[in-house]
Structures are given as C-alpha cells and as structure tokens.
Amino acid sequence: MTSAEYRIESLGPLVGSLLPSDHFKQLYADRSLAVAVAVKSVADPTRQQVQVVHIPSGEIVFQTTPWQQNR
Hints:
Blueprint: E1 6-9, E2 27-28, H1 31-40, E3 51-54, E4 59-63
Antiparallel strand pairs: 1-2, 1-3, 3-4
C-alpha cells in the first residue's frame, strides 16, 4: 500500500464545477492524479491559483500561476 504523499492547496477558496469540494481535502498517493484533479477542479487554472505539494519534502511539484499576494 502506497502512502498518500500529495495534497492540493490554494491561497483562495477552491470551488470546482467538475469535482466536489471534498477533493481538495483528500490526499493522493499518485502525483499525476493529484495534478490532474487540481487542474480539472478549478474553473480557470490560468486565473485561479492552485498547487500540488509533496507532503514529506514540502516541495511544490505543480502550480498553475505564480503565487503573488498583490497583482
């Protein structure tokens, strides 16, 4: 059994039209699946900030846009 090592994060609230919001609380064992869920779960990944984090290392393995507080 593989441990869940990836989580989806966002600076703002994540509300996707394709998947229920509880998917944003779920941990994933597969990096590719976590990235796919992150992208499919936001309405516009070019405007909504979302990232996938490798939990053990804290490394950001995917993000949709630069994380800046002030635009």
